[in-house]
Write a structure and sequence with these properties.
There is one protein chain. By secondary structure, the protein is an all-alpha fold. It is built from 10 helices and no strands. It has helices at about 10-20, 30-50, 50-60, 75-85, 95-105, 115-125, 130-145, 150-165, 180-190, 195-210. Helix 2 (about 30-50) packs across helix 6 (about 115-125) and helix 4 (about 75-85) packs antiparallel against helix 5. It is globular.
């Protein structure tokens, strides 16, 4: 029977055993981030008719691989999910395999479409493209990982990342069409091609995040 909310015992397990791990990650991938991805994933699951428990679990595990090398965190996250025998309480082996693939497929730089609706849901939910949020998160990542840079160094790193990921030639893909993310991406792209306007937002947020 399909429901609009995850099962209560699954929620208790995720909230007590899985989500606290995000407290150890950088500010761009902390508890606030995973909570937002979960909230967006649940909304997308409801609109697409996907299994709510699977979408919830994929969202909760999607960045656990940040405990290791960032470049392969999506693969590591999938391995962590696949190896967690506690999930057998709620899911079949086939569902667990599909969830592992979904976690592996969530990364924005992926060159191919996710293999299932669950991969598309978490990939879309992971892309909060509200311009101010994207800018804030990118600055936070820079401050956490490149503390040796001065403000100009952070600005140049920031704009390089914006161009490589979010510009019209960037590598980001949206897998569920017609949503808010399309509109927000257009707003962000209008800032990328207007460096003076982008710098105003950058400077305001940079000072607040120091």
């Amino acid at each position: 029977m399909m429901t609009n909310n995850p099962s209560l015992d699954l929620i208790e397990f995720i909230e007590t055993q899985i989500l606290p791990q995000y407290a150890h990650f950088d500010k761009a991938h902390n508890m606030e981030h995973v909570t937002r991805v979960i909230r967006s994933s649940l909304a997308l699951a409801r609109t697409t008719g996907a299994d709510i428990n699977m979408a919830y679990t994929v969202a909760a595990y999607h960045d656990l691989g940040l405990s290791g090398p960032r470049a392969i965190h999506h693969i590591t996250s999938g391995k962590i999910l696949m190896a967690d025998v506690r999930l057998k309480r709620w899911f079949s082996p086939e569902q667990i395999k599909m969830m592992r693939e979904a976690v592996e497929d969530h990364r924005a730089s992926a060159s191919r479409a996710p293999r299932s609706i669950y991969g598309k849901i978490v990939a879309e939910a992971d892309r909060d493209l509200d311009p101010e949020h994207v800018i804030r998160r990118t600055i936070q990542f820079g401050l956490s990982n490149y503390p040796e840079l001065d403000i100009e160094g952070h600005w140049h790193r920031f704009m390089k990342h914006m161009d490589e990921k979010y510009s019209v030639n960037g590598y980001i893909h949206l897998w569920i069409q017609g949503g808010e993310n399309e509109r927000k991406l257009e707003e962000l792209r209008s800032l990328i091609v207007s460096p003076a306007k982008m710098r105003e937002v950058f400077d305001r947020l940079f000072v607040l995040l120091l």
